[in-house]
Amino acid sequence: MQQPPFIAIANTFGAPVYIYDAQVITAQFERLKNAFKQVEHLKFHYAVKANSNLSILKLMHSLGAGLDTVSIEEVRLGILAGVAPKDIIYTPNGVSIEEVEAARDLGVQINIDNLSVLELFGQRYPETPVCVRINPHVMAGGNSNISVGHIDSKFGISIHQVPHILRIVNLTNMRINGVHMHTGSDILDIDVFLHASEILFEAATHFKDLEFIDFGSGFKVPYKKDDIETPIEELGQKLSERFNGFCQKVQKPLTLSFEPGKFLVSQAGTFVAKVNVVKQTTSTVFAGVDSGFNHLMRPMLYGSYHHIENLSNPEGKARFYSVVGYICETDTFGSNRRIAEITEGDLLAFHNAGAYCYSMASNYNSRLRPAEVLWIAEQAHLIRERETFEDLIKGQVEIDIEQLSTNPII
Length: 410
Ligand SMILES: *Cc1c(COP(=O)(O)O)cnc(C)c1O
Description:
By secondary structure, the protein is an alpha/beta fold. It has two domains: 36-260, TIM Barrel (Alpha-Beta Barrel); 269-393, Lyase, Ornithine Decarboxylase, Chain A, domain 1. α2 (22-35) crosses α9 (232-250), α6 (115-124) packs parallel to α7 (162-172) and α8 runs parallel beside α9. The strands form two sheets. Strands 1, 11, 12, 13, 14, 15, 16, 17 and 18 form a nine-stranded mixed sheet that branches. The model has no long low-confidence stretch (mean pLDDT 94). 42% of the residues are buried. The termini are far apart. The chain has twelve helices and 18 strands. Pyridoxal-5'-phosphate (PLP) binds next to α10.
């Protein structure tokens, strides 16, 4: 697959800039579909929080994906992108019953992960079917910030509380049409995933109105050459067999659902930033770029790896650099990386920048967020303008400190 013309795009739209390659997203989607092709009723809900640009949502919709949303605002973005509410699943955590009701009013599939909310919802809307998020208490992945299935996680209703769910269902006459788990990002081990899925299958047998089983996501993608990744074809084959067996056992044509985020968009994204300064200290050579963790937070937040490449001097002699940002705090993209010799003004590419990058960007240090470009059908399309100073002050209300009102509202 040919890469987008990063330098030409950065020269046209300016840097820093996020560039997404639609071909990669499409190929990943096809790969996923193919891995589970043995299953008759299959549905993918793209996890909006990974990258919530409206054009990305439209692309997902065009590929046949629904959406997985975690806030009422994401639900509204999905509807704005043209996705039918029935193809949107709403899986919030820790939100108010009012927000759940607002999502219900919009007609999306509700997924509840809390007994008190389930009971209230069942009392008020017994006719609206809901899915329940179960925590199977299985650890997936190594990083406790992104692993959400363990015993003291705030996510889901414990598998040990299924009797409690059933009591609420009986009392309210509500219908549970789906069971769900999401054990967190970065599933390294498919045996762990399959083990958790067995627990979910067992839980699923208790719900007579069941229509679908949703296994969430967390599929790991490679960040560098020879990196470990979820063997999706193997997982697809093994889980499909078990799923089909389960449908046969309960004699129901259930739907198998997933909510991939990172798997679909991570590798499709590249962040391009310009080097402002090369700074030689007594121990290190720093390459300081015109960006920082305000634009790409994952290295500082999770210690995640983003491969860095010098686009301007690809054939240059490799040297060791620490690539850092301009934020006035420790702001490291990568330490001691071997990169083709960098000169001030060079453009660097940060790979795997499609998921949890722009969507986590902020205005910290009063910096503006970058532009986003979609490379699709050999064309570059601006899909979000670079912010301006006006965006930064929008919504701020200036008051006259010298002349405060004598008659305040409060
Ligand atoms: C974040 C999230 C996902 C997507 O996870 P990835 O690791 O990006 O695939 C899926 N489902 C839920 C409920 C999530 O919160």
